[in-house]
C-alpha cells in the first residue's frame, strides 16, 4: 500500500521557512507561527522558499505581504530565496506603492499586492480594479456595483481606523469558478482596540468583530455611521459569497449560510494586531445593493457617465485604450458592454466615430459574439451601431455573417 505523505503548508527548519501552499488563511497562521518560534530560538534572519507554491490567493498573498513588511520594519530580515515567476509578479515581497506605479496600475491592477496610503490611492485602485473586472468577466446585475461599494468601504476603514500609514490590497478573478476574490489588510491597531473605548466596549476581540458588522456600530458617531462593515456583510451574504474578517487573535467566517468564529489565532503583536478582510463574490448571482443596504441606493456613476439626455448609453470605442485591432481587445470591450447592459438594461449606442479601420477578429469578438449571445432580434433592440465608415461596415458585416453561419452549423 502506498503511504500518502502529507505535505505541510509551511515548514521551518532553523531559519529556513518553506511555504508550500498559499490558498487558505491557515497558511498565514502557520507562517506567523514559523517566524514566532524561529525568533524565539534567536534567529533574526529568515530565508523564505516559495518554489513549490502552485497557486496563490489574495487571502494569503496580502497578509503575507503585510507580515513581511512589518518584520522588515522591526529589523528582522526576511529574504526570499526561491519564488516562481508568477508569484514574483504579485510583489508580495515589497508591495507596489500606488503613487509610484501609475503605469502598472493602468495596465492591470489585478494579481498584484498594492500598498495604499490615502483616499487618492483608494480612488485610483478601485477605478482600476473595477475597470479590470468589468472587462474580464461577465457579471450579473449589481455585482460590480456591490464590489465597488465594498472595496471603497473596507479600504476607507484602513485609512480611518487602523492608525497606521498604509494598507495592502489584492484582487483576483477566478474564471473557472466565476468568483472574484479580494483581500485588504493592515498592520494597525485592530478592530478590538479601535472599538474598546467606544460605547460598545467589546470584552473580547471576537466580540469586537461581531459588533463591527452590526448596523450603526462605529467607534465614534462624529466620524462614522457604522455602515461599512455592516454593508459589506449584507452584500456578501445576499450573494451567498464568502467573508472572513480577522483581527488579532479573532476571526469571523461566513461561508454562505454557515458562520464560524475563532479566537486563538496567532497574530503579529499586541500593539499591531491588524485587520484582514477577505471576501469573495459570485459573478453569476445578482446583488441588489439597495436591498442589502436597506433601501439606500448608491449612485451608479459608471452608468450615469455614459447616459445622454435621451436615456441612451453612449459607448465610444475611440476612447478605449486597448484599440480595435485584436481579439483580446474585442473580448474585453464585449465583457464591459455586457456588464453595462446587465446593470442598466438600457439601450447602448456603440460609437465607431474616429475609427478608420478595425480588424476582423476584433469585429467578430465584439459584434459577432454579441449578436450570437443575444440573438439577432434582441441585439437590434439593445444595441445601435453608430458612425461606422464604409470599411468598418464591410468588416463587421462579413464577421457577423460568418459568425451567424457558424452558429447555425453548430446549433
Ligand atoms: N481596519 C480597521 N482597523 C481598526 N478598526 C477598524 C477597521 N475597520 C473597521 N474598524 C472598526 O469597526 C468599526 C465599524 O466599521 P464600519 O466601517 O462599519 O463603520 P465606520 O467606518 O465607523 O463608519 P462608516 O463606515 O459608516 O463611515 C469602526 O468604527 C472601527 O472601530
Ligand atoms: Mg467604515
Describe the structure.
α5 (119-136) runs antiparallel to α6 (143-161), α6 (143-161) runs antiparallel to α9 (228-238) and α13 crosses α14. This protein has 15 helices and 15 strands. The chain is α/β, with parallel strands linked by helices. It starts with 9 loop residues before the first strand and ends with a helix. The strands form three sheets. It has an eight-stranded mixed beta sheet, sandwiched between helices. Strands 1-2-3-4 form a four-stranded mixed beta sheet. It has a three-stranded parallel beta sheet with strand order 13-14-15. The protein has helices at residues 25-40, 58-73, 85-88, 102-107, 119-136, 143-161, 190-196, 205-212, 228-238, 289-292, 301-304, 327-344, 360-374, 376-382, 390-410, and strands spanning 10-13, 16-19, 45-49, 77-82, 96-97, 114-116, 167-174, 179-186, 242-247, 250-255, 258-262, 275-282, 313-316, 348-351, 383-386. Helix content is 42%, strand content 19%. The protein folds into three domains: 1-89, STAS domain (Transcription Regulator spoIIAA, 2-Layer Sandwich), CATH 3.30.750.24; 95-298, 2-Layer Sandwich (Heat Shock Protein 90); 302-410, Transcription Regulator spoIIAA, CATH 3.30.750. The model has no long low-confidence stretch (mean pLDDT 95). Residues 153, 156-157, 224, 228 line the site of magnesium ion (MG).
Amino acid at each position: 500500500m502506498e503511504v500518502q505523505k502529507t505535505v505541510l503548508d509551511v515548514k521551518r527548519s532553523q531559519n529556513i521557512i518553506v511555504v508550500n501552499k498559499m490558498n487558505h488563511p491557515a497558511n498565514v497562521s502557520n507562517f506567523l507561527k514559523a517566524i514566532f518560534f524561529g525568533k524565539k530560538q534567536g534567529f533574526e534572519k529568515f530565508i523564505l522558499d516559495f518554489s513549490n507554491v502552485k497557486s496563490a490567493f489574495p487571502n494569503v498573498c496580502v497578509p503575507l505581504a503585510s507580515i513581511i513588511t512589518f518584520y522588515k520594519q522591526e529589523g528582522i530580515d526576511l529574504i526570499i530565496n526561491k519564488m516562481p515567476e508568477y508569484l514574483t509578479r504579485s510583489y508580495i515581497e515589497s508591495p507596489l506603492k500606488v503613487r509610484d506605479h501609475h503605469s502598472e496600475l493602468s495596465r492591470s491592477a489585478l494579481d498584484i499586492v498594492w500598498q495604499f496610503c490615502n483616499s487618492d490611492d483608494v480612488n485610483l485602485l478601485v477605478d482600476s480594479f473595477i475597470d479590470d473586472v468589468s472587462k474580464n468577466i461577465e457579471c450579473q446585475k449589481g455585482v460590480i456595483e456591490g464590489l465597488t461599494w465594498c472595496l471603497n468601504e473596507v479600504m476607507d476603514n484602513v485609512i480611518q481606523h487602523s492608525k497606521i500609514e498604509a494598507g495592502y490590497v489584492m484582487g483576483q478573478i477566478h474564471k473557472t469558478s466565476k468568483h472574484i476574490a479580494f483581500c485588504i489588510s493592515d498592520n494597525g491597531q485592530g478592530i478590538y482596540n479601535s472599538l474598546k473605548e467606544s460605547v460598545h466596549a467589546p470584552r473580547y476581540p471576537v466580540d469586537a468583530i461581531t459588533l463591527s458588522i452590526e448596523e450603526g456600530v462605529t467607534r465614534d458617531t462624529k466620524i462614522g455611521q457604522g455602515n461599512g462593515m455592516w454593508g459589506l456583510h449584507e452584500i456578501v451574504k445576499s450573494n451567498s459569497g464568502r467573508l472572513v474578517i480577522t483581527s488579532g487573535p479573532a476571526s469571523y467566517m461566513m461561508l454562505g449560510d454557515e458562520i464560524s468564529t475563532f479566537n486563538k489565532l496567532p497574530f503579529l503583536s499586541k500593539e499591531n494586531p491588524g485587520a484582514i478582510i477577505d471576501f469573495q463574490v459570485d459573478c453569476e448571482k445578482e446583488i441588489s445593493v439597495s436591498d442589502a443596504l436597506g433601501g439606500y441606493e448608491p449612485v451608479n456613476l459608471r452608468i450615469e457617465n455614459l447616459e445622454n439626455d435621451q436615456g441612451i448609453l453612449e459607448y465610444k470605442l475611440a476612447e478605449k485604450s486597448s484599440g480595435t485591432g485584436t481579439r483580446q481587445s474585442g473580448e474585453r470591450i464585449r465583457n464591459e458592454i455586457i456588464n453595462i447592459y446587465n446593470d442598466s438594461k438600457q439601450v447602448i449606442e456603440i460609437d465607431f466615430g474616429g475609427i478608420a479601420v478595425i480588424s476582423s477578429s476584433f469585429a467578430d469578438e465584439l459584434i459577432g459574439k454579441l449578436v450570437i449571445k443575444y440573438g439577432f432580434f434582441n441585439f437590434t433592440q439593445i444595441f445601435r451601431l453608430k458612425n461606422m465608415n464604409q470599411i468598418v461596415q464591410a468588416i463587421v458585416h462579413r464577421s457577423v455573417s460568418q459568425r451567424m453561419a457558424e452558429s447555425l452549423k453548430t446549433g
